[in-house]
């Protein structure tokens, strides 16, 4: 059994948090870590007690949903609310932070960002991180740590599709199965 790395462990936390997101546009999770300990976490959602996008639809202005607070902000504000210092901390995010979160992360004294997915990476955000000496590292999330049989499952499905293709089943039916399989992995 392979031991999960710290990076994958914290990224998995962010991935899990993203599943709590209430905005249908994008599910994002963020975990703030100091000295290998989780000090806060957040996901993108409405203010506490507010309407949720998943119930009321997004409130879109200039192509942005203004109802939600971003995951990174929520994690930082959790620290503010409970008086937890963020200086010299690190943050694990499922998606590359937007410009607003980028500035908040820098200003909160966070020194390193790990992100799992590129998301409209703004060149100005990259420039600001560099200026502020905040390290940015791409850490793709590896589902195999949470589901150790993930690769085996994928290979089995691929094999089944191959056999279907070689069978007498209609092309359309096989294509349907193939699409369904692709949607799963
Ligand atoms: Zn929304
Ligand atoms: Zn943001």
From TrEMBL:
Residues 5-132 form the CMP/dCMP-type deaminase domain. Its cofactor is Zn(2+). InterPro entries: APOBEC/CMP_deaminase_Zn-bd (IPR016192), CMP_dCMP_dom (IPR002125), Competence_ComEB (IPR013404), Cytidine_deaminase-like (IPR016193), dCMP_deaminase-rel (IPR015517), Deoxycytidylate_deaminase_dom (IPR035105). GO terms for molecular function: dCMP deaminase activity; zinc ion binding. Keywords: Hydrolase, Metal-binding, Zinc. GO terms for cellular component: cytoplasm. Belongs to the cytidine and deoxycytidylate deaminase family. This is ComE operon protein 2. It comes from Falsibacillus albus.
